[in-house]
Write a structure and sequence with these properties.
single chain, 29% helix, binds cobalt (II) ion, Malonyl-Coenzyme A Acyl Carrier Protein, domain 2, 11 helices, Jelly Rolls
Length: 375
């Protein structure tokens, strides 16, 4: 992995890249993945964009007029588009394509907790989404075709208010580079950029997640509400008569406040929430259970012969206290820690690691839920 990561980063060791570039300055790498011809043919991407569990959109430009169409799209839709100046964007390609998940995992020198998704765009000449900025880090890896990127750090991030997509009102790029197949550009958050296709081609965007405090706080309160179990009840056996029935008395405040203060936010609870939040599948994700799942005994035989791998949609993370899988927390099993860590980090296990009664039971459970499968 270190050799691959450093090729990907233009000869930089991951630690040097993180110190010099991550969230600081762009990095352009020629031949980050030599010979990279993309993972999907345009027809495959159009097919993905036809699914209602896949988020996709088309951005069209006619002079200064921009139009956005939301998917899913029928195949015939693409035949009626102009020859120039449009692009199709498909999000979460890693969830549907094992090679897309593998591409994301090439960036494993950064915690999986920070990885978001692989977005693939297909553009005809002149196609692009216009000058904009993203609030997260992104690696833009060019597949087939060439694309001209202009980018720069600018203070003025005002957006045009008259358009259906986020386009900068003023764009003052300081760098221009043309990327060909296998070239890659890293951009830190809030860097203004614009990529315009020179030829028909595809760009693979490896995006990172960076929730806002508002997003995280709202998710925490939702999570907490689902787990709230307060058993106290308002009571006032010593109630005295009042001459001002409209007044909220101090006793009412005190008792209600005491009941609310019983809601605790201990660090342990917050830690558990964060693990669940980071592994929560995206709303459009559903797991396919095997049609005729093998029973435990057969699973143990096949698993130890072939090995297993996580489904691309599965999120499996851990900390010192717990493991988190697809939005659920579990205590560490008493044994089997190294195998579980190997499965979470490498996302696959060789057959030799699929042994041991309680461990195989857990793997079988995940297999029946569609969270993993045989290699
Ligand atoms: C694209 O692939 O067209 C857009 C990627 C980006 O600018 O973030
Ligand atoms: Co962008």
């Amino acid at each position: 992995m270190p050799a691959t990561a450093s090729t990907l980063l233009g000869g930089l060791a991951p630690a040097s890249f993180l110190r010099r570039h991550w969230q600081k300055r762009p990095l352009l790498v020629h031949r980050a993945i030599a010979g990279f011809g993309g993972l999907l043919q345009p027809a495959d991407l159009f097919a993905l964009a036809g699914r209602d569990d896949v988020e996709s959109r088309i951005v069209l430009r006619e002079r200064s007029r921009w139009t956005v169409q939301q998917g899913p799209f029928r195949k015939s839709h693409f035949k009626n588009l102009p020859r120039r100046r449009w692009t199709l964007l498909v999000h979460g390609v890693n969830l549907h394509l094992a090679s897309g998940d593998d591409l994301l995992r090439r960036f494993a020198f950064i915690s999986y907790a920070r990885l978001d998704d692989l977005m693939v765009s297909y553009a005809v000449p002149g196609g692009g989404v216009g000058p904009h900025f993203d609030s997260y880090d992104v690696f833009l890896l060019q597949g087939p075709g060439r694309r001209r990127w202009q980018f720069g750090r600018q203070r003025d991030l005002t957006l045009r208010s008259d358009l259906p997509l986020k386009i900068l009102a003023r764009f003052s790029p300081t760098s221009t580079h043309t990327l060909g197949p296998g070239d890659m550009l890293y951009l830190p958050p809030k860097f203004a950029h614009d990529g315009v296709a020179i030829d028909e081609g595809s760009t693979y965007s490896i995006g990172f997640r960076a929730p806002s405090a508002q997003e995280l706080g709202t998710a925490f309160l939702d999570w907490l509400r689902d787990r709230l179990a307060l058993d106290d009840q308002y009571a006032d056996p010593g109630l005295a008569a009042t001459l001002e029935p409209a007044r909220i008395g101090k006793g009412i405040y005190a008792q209600c406040a005491g009941m609310i203060r019983a809601i605790r936010c201990e660090p342990e609870l917050i830690q558990r929430f964060i693990g669940c939040y980071l592994t929560e599948p995206k709303p459009q994700v559903f797991f396919d259970r095997p049609g005729h799942p093998h029973g435990l005994r057969m699973f143990a035989v096949e698993g130890s012969r072939r090995g297993v791998h996580l489904d691309p949609r599965t999120q499996l993370l851990y900390d010192d206290d717990r493991i988190y899988i697809n939005g659920m927390a579990m205590d560490w099993p008493a044994s089997d820690r190294p195998e579980l860590k190997r499965l979470a980090n490498a996302r696959r296990l060789c057959g030799g690691d699929v042994v041991g009664r309680s461990w195989v039971q857990l793997l079988h459970h995940w297999y029946c839920d569609g969270y993993l499968d045989y290699d």
